[in-house]
Amino acid sequence: MRVLGIETSCDETGVAVYDTGAGLLAHAVYSQIALHAEYGGVVPERASRDHVRKLLPLVRQTLAEAGLAPGDLDGVAYTAGPGLVGALLVGAGVARALAWALEVPAIGVHHMEGHLLAPLMEDNPPQPPFVALLVSGGHTQLVAVEAIGRYRLLGETLDDAAGEAFDKTAKLMGLPYPGGPQLAALAEQGRPGVFRFARPMTDRPGLDFSFSGLKTQVLLAWQQSDRSAQTRADIARGFEDAVVETLAIKCERALDAAGSDVIVVSGGVGANRRLRARLQKMAAARGGRACFPRPSLCTDNGAMIAFAGALRLQAGQHDGAQVRVAARWDMAALPALAASGA
User: Fold this and answer.
1) Is 115 annotated for ligand binding?
2) Which residue of 8, 113, 168, 228 lies most exposed, with the fewest beta carbons within 10 A?
3) 272 assigned to a ligand binding site
4) Is 42 annotated to bind ligand?
5) 301 annotated as a binding-site residue
6) The whole model's pTM is what?
């Protein structure tokens, strides 16, 4: 089954073709970083307009790279939420129109389920049950995955998501947008231990996160420092170490709570080199494993939507002709797949 996937939940336009027999055939992502840089963040209306401008050319490009014509598709999947409503409507409208014209089924995919399932596209994929850490600019969640479509929330952030904390911390230190990757790169030049910040909410039971206080600690340290290049790198390293260690502590607790030794990590922060190394070490010490998607599939992309959509379409699930999107959407409300579909 060949499925076209469309992702337009925020500021990346992503398109991919996934074949349930041959795997990922082609994928492309257009980022709007330059468009939003002067504002220091995503402007929803500009994001929607740019999706309108870029989506159809990207669909044509991706189909060409896959060596397919539109009539070769067996289904269309698109991000239906959560996300920016205007941006979501662009992808949903195009996807539904294509499906109608081609007379193939279409399905709206939960954005975070797409992230969660992305590691299953890699070699030697993990099989449920496992624990998933969804860590990005908009979400930080620990989820017990009993089966595809059967998700139980274990813990989540009470304020800033980890990626959001990276971006905001970078901004207060004067790093250019988008700040998260800039801060992570700067931390590579920092000296470990020069600045040590708290590991928030690790001194109490529970699996929830909070990163706003950590951000304030970094602000105070930066304001009281000499603001030299090395000091900025040292503060960046201290911040990154605090986030990574906090995530690792909570992941280990989540594995204990779920009775699992497999942690799956997805989302933009999942590409962080130090986080990957720390979680791999933690999982190995338990006799388990940590699984990640390739870095190019950590950020928002059409491949994860095509894959998640293909699993559901193959299981016989599809949506009606209505164009429906949701800014907020509880992943626990998703229907489970039958064992044969997973």
Assistant:
1) yes
2) 228
3) yes
4) no
5) no
6) 0.94
Q: Does the annotation place 40 within a ligand binding site? A: no
Residue 134 annotated as lining a ligand binding site: yes
State pLDDT tens for residues 3-41.
999 999 999 999 999 999 999 999 999 999 999 988 888
Pick the closest to residue 216 from 264, 137, 256, 159 (CA basis). 159
Q: Residue 310: which of 139, 144, 74 has the closest Cα?
A: 74
pLDDT band, residue 250 (cuts 50/70/90): very high
CA dihedral over 124, 67, 95, 161, signed as positive or negative: positive
- For 152, which DSSP code? E
Does residue 241 have a known ligand-binding role? Answer: no
For 96, residues 6+ apart whose C-beta sits below 8 A from its C-beta are 76, 78, 106, 321, 323
Computed over its alpha carbons, how large is the radius of gyration of the chain?
20
- The C-alpha angle with vertex 311 and arms to 306 and 316, in degrees rounded to 5, equals 120
- 300 annotated to a ligand binding site: yes
In the chain, the domains with their CATH numbers are 2-116+297-333 (3.30.420.40), 128-292 (3.30.420.40)
